[in-house]
């Protein structure tokens, strides 16, 4: 799943982001209400983890604005406000669940798993397709020409980001930010290593079928439809 964490406590946000990444998800962080609203309104997330007490705009206002915009991304509220009144207000505003702080991370993962199973067609959950390549974000299954690809969590996240931007170049900097959640280190070859492994599984193992993943020298990487022949 691709998840947005809207949380102003940097330490907690980092802990949640790291845990979600280790569990195979892609997680972004917004530290203020307006930032969270903008990201949730412009990016197709599978779920939003939303604190209620945020600088700039309250979590409830963020949630209400999302629903007014017609954005139905599932929202799970994470809040230290534990009385029944706040729980009811959050659910009435459009949240699908409410988890009180402090919480066990395993419980958070379990609730996200339920959201993924129960929500019909959440934002970004549709299968992504390019030529004979199919990626199922919820089932976390990738096939090419009907054959299942055995990808690591990082390779899956890289491929999903490339597929969501099919035909466009994705820079190493963006890959680092979205998949590794770090600033890109010009001296590191970790991205090249993962791209090489992904290219082997995606293209080399299917030769002589046309390659889908290409390196755009000096810019980044791109997935595109193979050129028509004949």
Strand order of the main beta sheet, please? 2-1-3-4-5
**Gyration radius, in Å:** 19 Å
Mean pLDDT: 86
Query: What portion of the residues fall into strands of 2 or more residues?
Result: 15-25%
By secondary-structure content and strand pairing, the structural class works out as alpha/beta
Helix count from the secondary structure assignment: 8
Distance separating the two termini: 39 Å
Task: Extract low-pLDDT stretches.
Answer: none
What is the N-to-C order of secondary-structure elements (H for helix, E for strand)? EHEHEHEHEHEEEEHHHEE
Number of strands: 11
Query: Helicity level, as a percent range?
Result: 25-40%
Identify the overall geometry. Answer: elongated
* Largest sheet features: 5 strands, parallel
């Amino acid at each position: 799943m691709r998840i947005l964490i809207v949380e102003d406590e940097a330490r907690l946000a980092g802990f949640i982001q790291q845990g979600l990444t280790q569990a195979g998800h892609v997680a972004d962080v917004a530290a203020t209400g307006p930032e969270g609203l903008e990201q949730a309104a412009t990016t197709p997330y599978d779920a939003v983890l939303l604190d209620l007490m945020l600088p700039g705009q309250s979590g409830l206002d963020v949630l209400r604005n999302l629903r007014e915009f017609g954005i139905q991304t599932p929202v799970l509220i994470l809040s230290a406000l534990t009385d029944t009144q706040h729980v009811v207000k959050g659910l009435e505003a459009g949240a699908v669940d409410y988890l009180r702080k402090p919480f066990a991370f395993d419980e958070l993962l379990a609730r996200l798993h339920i959201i993924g199973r129960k929500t019909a067609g959440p934002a970004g959950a549709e299968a992504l397709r390019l030529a004979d390549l199919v990626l199922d974000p919820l089932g976390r299954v990738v096939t090419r020409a009907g054959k299942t690809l055995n990808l690591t969590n990082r390779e899956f996240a890289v491929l999903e980001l490339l597929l969501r931007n099919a035909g466009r170049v994705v820079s190493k900097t963006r890959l680092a930010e979205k998949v590794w959640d770090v600033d890109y280190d010009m001296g590191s070859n970790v991205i090249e290593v993962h791209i090489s492994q992904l290219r082997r599984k995606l293209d080399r193992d299917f030769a002589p079928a046309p390659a889908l993943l290409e390196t755009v020298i000096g810019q980044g990487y791109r997935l595109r439809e193979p050129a028509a022949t004949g």
